Amino acid sequence: MITTRSVRIFLIGLTLTFLMTVIPHLGFKQNKTIVSPLSKTTDIWDKITPKLELKQNSFQVKRQLISNVSAGGDYDKASAYAVVDFDSGEVLASKNLSAKMPMASLTKVMTAVVALDLAEPDEYFTVTRQAASQIPTKVMLKAGEQYRLEDLLQHALISSANDSSYAIKDGIDAKYRSGTFIAAMNKKAKFIGLKNTQFSNPAGLDSANHYSSVEDLAVLSAYALKNYPLISEIVALEISDLTNNGEDMRFYLQNWNGLMGVYPNISGVKIGNTGKAGNCTIVLSERNGKKIIAVVLGAPGVLERDLWASQLLDLGFSKAAGLEPIYITEDELQDKYASWQYFE
Which of 30-39, 219-228, 312-321 has the lowest mean pLDDT? Predict the structure, then answer.
């Protein structure tokens, strides 16, 4: 039976204070389940490792002669940043390039990568109590509900839903064995050459054992965008309408990347914030055939996060392609944030 319900997603705290009305819970037929767990006697890593290593990494950051290439802008107040040529891997400017730091919901890029390695987009995952009980940001999943992996990925990547991220982890663990998903995240990190990254959860919650660097996050993002068309498609969406059919109430997901629709040709990638990580973002833009990726960790607020990312993109396009800066203003970003307040 198909069911629907309405829910509002709240972004709480100093960093995400903008409200949007959403109506999650696409109804799904309850007779669909994920694949049964493998036998405990089976060496699951003999089956999992080839899946994780199927797509090779062709992107490496080129550090040049020094790892910090600061241009002295306001973005130097961030804990760390990197602006990288997406095609060549050249670091155009950076601060604390390889330092281990909290990464908040930027984690969900790896969550999506590993999920697509180990399951198909149309597999159905059952929401566990653990997933349903996660703290915001969330889309208010209920234990026992079933969702396609593709829809859970949209929740996690577009609206940064922690409950959907845990539903993915728990679904993979149910398919293989408890603890598989986090172990696979760390195995995948080593395979693609991440040097200063460790995962302890699928959502990006603060933990001493959960960290990355702007260098590694640039590599991870490039790997995800180059190898997983579904991830590229999802993160490029500014708003996603996941209404199940014409009779259901509307269910919208809002992308909280403030540069989308403001800075030219932004294609995601992910935003996040926690108490320890501050405000973080990964953004990709293309101008005149040149792609630049910027990573910012530890901005004090959403405005600084997006403004500094835009300035780093300007710097990157100037250095790599001789393009004029866009000069995004605070007023433009504030107008964008105001548009987030609500949808019906």
Answer: 30-39
